[in-house]
Amino acid sequence: MNSNLNYGIIGNCKSAALINEDSSIDWLCLPQFDSASVFAKLLDRKKGGHFRINKGDYSITQSYLENTSILRTLFENKTSSFEVLDFMPRYKNDTQSFYTPREVIRLIKPIKGIPKISVDYQPRLEYAAAETKTYVKDQFIVSVYDHDNYDSLYLYSNLNPQDILSGTLMDLKKTAFFSVSYNEKLNLPSLDQCLLDFERTKVYWLNWCDKTPHYNNYNAVIHRSAMTLKLLSFDKTGAILAAATTSLPESIGEVRNWDYRFSWIRDSSMVIRVISKLGHRKIVKDFIDYIIDLVPEKDEKFQIMYGINKEKVLTEKVLNHLSGYENSAPVRIGNAAYKQKQNDIYGILMDAIHVELCEFPLVYEKKEELWSIVKNIVWIVKNNWELPDKGIWEFRDEDKHFTFSKVLCWVAIDRAIKIAALLGKEKPLWKEIRSAIKNDIHDKAWNNKVDSYTQYYGSEALDASVLLMEQYGFIDAHEERFVKTVHAVERELSYEGLLFRYKNKDDFGAPTSSFTICTFWFINSLYKIGEIEKSKKMFDQVLKYSNHLGLFSEDLDFKTKRLLGNFPQAYSHLALIDVALNFNEK
């Protein structure tokens, strides 16, 4: 275990919490993923706020209950032991809709002897921008933020409220519960109700995992990654988040800190591509509905990203009062990248639509709406594929003719042709555009000097994203140019068993950590060109770099292998599943 991000994630597709291996809730935003935090120790150890069950002289281990997203933290010593069970309720109610309250439930269960516990409850609402005051009321503890705006948080428990707030050491003779709720409860929570919520939530996750195919190889890591992707989906709109956090740095002490609590078209569509292979139709359908709702006008261009409630303006702001993760300021909320032009998103989205139409039947009127979006994307690509853009890595300096963007423009037209055939439409002109893009890439993206497709036209710089040329069907795995590209990428970008995204300096200097998805792309490419044993050996090694629960963030430090960047990262887990599925092919 080589990570300081030793957190588990719990959630209910409305929000999520990160819980440290010592039981401390160090990150929670309510009422939803992208709301202001109520606990943010993750971003400021002193000011951020947390909720911890103090350990005394106990040894602690943490795990998920099998095939669930319920987190178990076990405290043990020679004379006593107890467990903390953390979850956010999610289950079908009497109307068959999902019950997903804005609430975290903690159950503290004695197992052996009479354990002694104390509670460290320190909510800090609104990103801890000003003082949060906490009061004991008749039936609950309430925390209030009343400054430039108003917010509140409620804590219910069967323990003495004064003992909770004072951190008094208590004998745990029976199961205790905590309900951390954004809303004041109309029906007072009880231990029985919390235990019932626990059982119902457990059954929900067991059923969800049972619908996921079971595999002979890597079944546990596939299922954990699939559940993580599910936890990053937002029920209300169908949006899929890139990660549950903001401003976790790509490298400690540097400034590559971004808010990832949004839905990138690229990341989300890649998730859809993978999750559809696992048969979870609802996530796929909900995301396609999200996309349909985002583009009401035929001439409206797609942004690269949107808010999870379909917001189109994501103004970036710096929270100077927070010190940042391990003092890696700045802490940002919002993301200015929403203004960027990245031509690759059209191909990735078109690929997701093609997957939806191939694998899941749609009602007729939805097909008509999707067909309008398909034609709109073709029109945009036809008019923009020859222009430079910011590329997949969101460079903030001048636009370039990035190879990956060109390939995904080809994918957009290729999938549009396939969709047209599915719908009984013939578009000869589209085939001409597809050929033109392919010829352009073959002529301008290949560099004989480095024997590889390069990052952008006329460059000698290599880029891991070109490995996706094969995955998206632009080139066959055994074509000489692709095999040479894989080997060139290994020579230039592989380091300490991980991969650079690229090595050339960008507007923040040369990258110093490995982008986890790129390592998985490379492992996948090795498999595809026939280097299967090497691919499996590398995959097994990289899996060891996850945290204690099998979770990955965005980046890995080359030397220490510690997790860096926003967490848990949808990108990393979707690519992990993709690779693991290779080793289950018949």
Describe the structure.
The structure is a single chain. 34% of the residues lie in helices and 19% in strands. With 586 residues, it is an alpha+beta fold. It is globular and about 75 Å long. It starts with 6 loop residues before the first strand and ends with a helix.
CATH class value of the largest domain: Mainly Alpha
Strand content: 15-25%
Q: What Rg, in angstroms, do the CA atoms define?
A: 24 Å
Q: Which sheet architecture does the biggest sheet show? A: 8 strands, antiparallel
Record the strand order, biggest sheet: 6-7-8-11-17-15-14-13
**Structural class by sheet pairing and helices:** alpha+beta
What's the CATH topology label of the largest domain?
A: Glycosyltransferase
Q: Label the CATH architecture of the largest domain.
A: Alpha/alpha barrel
- What is the terminal separation in angstroms? 32 Å
H/I helix tally: 15
How many beta strands in the DSSP annotation?
A: 28
What is the count of distinct domains? 2
Multimeric state:
single chain
What level of helicity do the residues show? 25-40%
* Low-confidence residue ranges: none
Mean pLDDT: 93
**Form type:** globular
Throw out a few tags for this protein.
586 residues, alpha+beta, Beta-galactosidase, Chain A, domain 5, Glycosyltransferase, eight-stranded antiparallel β-sheet, four-stranded antiparallel β-sheet, 28 strands, globular
